[in-house]
């Protein structure tokens, strides 16, 4: 890809040194020229990217893309429709602007430009998405090891076709019910440690049939009730099943739920796969956006330095850029959490400063980095970290001071909230640790794992929630359990544990209520929820 | 080089299916909203889209999440005045959420999920499950519309309609046919050449071999001269225009505007007619409406006058029926038109006139119409007209319907009742 860039753009470079464009209207030729100029620069800075596919779309199409989580193909489900309707409403009422771009982690890397954007915005988006995000997707270890950019589109097509076939064969309601339940557990359909390996769509289809047969055999073994000859009564010390607690609840369901049909297991698998695909994105939001923002800023200011863009262009660019990285204070009515663009951009920019112009403080805090080659350092920071470790490693005192970060400790056993650290010498470390903890998915989402199954008794499934700093489960817990119950088919229990002490228990169906005959079956029949 | 693609011409409505899935799932909510809307709308915008609102909790997708409580450490930006160790009194337990932080972890936001459905969707929901009673007559009138259908393969056509497979197949067949003789001769020649060459070298006749070889070369050339694709191999998909039978309907709206009908009753009657009109428009490609208003005498009027004129007088219902009978005979022969009648009145009629109505209906109108509905808009007891009409209903149970409307709330339910899908013995 890079070779063709070089050969394609050589001639451009030699004959044009003035501004690429002066008007704010864009044309396809101009987009091409900007793309060439930016890609040249990106190469100079050592950004390694997938080939780019830049697609110009209208705002309606952007709304479509929004509601299918940006993916170009997706299976049908009402929740995407709901998403679409609310985006459409908000957009029409002027409550929100649409994002300027959407970029897809695929190979080639697909980026959408909206036709309403001005030339400046298009250039910004190209630099941001096609070179910033793109190089992040290609470089970051989470994306490299968890997602396969080459096969995702194929997999989506497989999933869409498979689900439509199921809808034809088993009916919309049946399929919808299973998908609803899977979506409720989507965040618990992720392998955090194992790495899946990518396969093509055709391969996927072939394997799907093998899986069907295999699953059935395995299941029969687990739920065998006929006593084996010879074992007799010696089975006193029953093994717990599963032997280890399982964090991937959807995987556990797919493999072990007693009553699911094969196609239902396949649906579980599809949702699980997609959750896995999006998992790295959820873990690298700050880094990903920060990296892309850093590079659009760096690339476009460099273009300006070389006289390739006008001052008017820069004014417009800087205005958008400033909007993107605006961080309202905690007491502002606009405040809605820490802006990942701001945080990421600040850290990356400051890293560059530390490399180029280190102060004494920086030398104390970052002895390895201060004064090093900034490009290599930034590449290193981008490649081998996720949000949590990235913040823990690279959040500098200067950024904490600039953003005026402070930490509050809200303990429900105390009457008052305590300010536990602010941006001063004694607070930097704690502030950094706490902020990093805030980006640990494990802390943000309740830690719930499959604990045991009563294989010899009523086949009930027991989950354990390990409380993090005594935080209880939210109000929707019983609703989610209903979904889990639908998939599992038998009773589901959830114990919320603080240490070894059970703080709360949830059951589905609720205990104490008279169980009607045939209730297990009726739960499998979809009901409006 | 990056690829730059213009996708603007691709379909915009990628989310349509998902949107429909959503509407399908919340049908019950939307239907209710549509029903409510029907009652509260003004007549003029009966057929606009509608804002639907659904309680957020009904459409939420539950997830495991943390509830309030426990020990939370939060980092916030924009410190102005705090130093380490400061204590901030907790704001009220509910809602405040400790100093405004973590706005994302409260699941509750807006109470209602509000969205707009289009006019088309609105009407779909409004008339869902309704059916025009009785068979639909179709006929070929002079100015039909055409439908373009495929009609096999033809030898002539435009290049755009070229059927590649058929063309190549025809070419292949032609090549086989034109060369089969030559190829047979060729095979024989090759065979004799082979025989000749196998002979002992002493016995070979070189001249014969030469001759055969020349002949073979010539034959091969002739075979290769048969063109791969010839003009008359080309086959085209043939499309023809087929006249489409159109269903036509005419609706007679008979409204009582006598002195006993007050403004509110008239308004209700109008709403009823409007609903009926919208419904017919959806069911038939072509619908005509005849407006007849009557007091002591009936008059055919245009829409404007029908809905807004303020003329008034006594009541003779049969005058309207007579006028309808005349117009039917003159302009709408029952063999070509699906005829519907809808009559709205407060039931106040000259007593001896009601039996006339009965006779006209039974003899001249009911045999020709698809469906006749009568709504009586009155909170009072029924009078002679209602009783006469009941006997008409007994005679034509599938073609005659009557209902009573007391206030605006009744219109839509009554309408649904009149046109709900009935499982008739005939089908």
Core attributes:
heterodimer; A: 529 residues; alpha/beta; 3 domains; 4-stranded mixed sheet; 3-stranded mixed sheet; 22 helices; 9 strands; 53% helix; 11% strand; globular; disordered N terminus; disordered C terminus; B: 427 residues; Rossmann fold; 7-stranded mixed sheet; two-stranded antiparallel ribbon; 41% helix; flat
What does this 3D model show about the protein?
The complex is a heterodimer of chains A (529) and B (427). Chain A is an alpha/beta fold and 529 residues long. The longest helix of chain A has 22 residues, at 201-222. Chain A contains 22 helices and nine strands. Mean pLDDT of chain A is 83; it is low at 1-15, 231-236 and 513-529. Chain A has three domains: 2-140 and 284-318, no CATH class; 173-221 and 240-267 and 446-529, no CATH class; 329-443, no CATH class. Chain A has a four-stranded mixed β-sheet. A three-stranded mixed β-sheet of chain A has the order 1-3-2. In chain A, strands 4-5 form a two-stranded antiparallel sheet. Chain B has three domains: 17-58 and 112-121, no CATH class; 159-238; 246-419, von Willebrand factor, type A domain (Rossmann fold). Chain B has 13 helices and 14 strands. In chain B, the strands form three sheets. In chain B, strands 6, 9, 10, 11, 12, 13 and 14 form a seven-stranded mixed β-sheet that branches. Chain B has a two-stranded antiparallel ribbon with strand order 2-5. Chain B is flat, with a radius of gyration of 40 Å. The two termini of chain B are 66 Å apart. Classes of the chains: A alpha/beta (529), B alpha/beta (427).
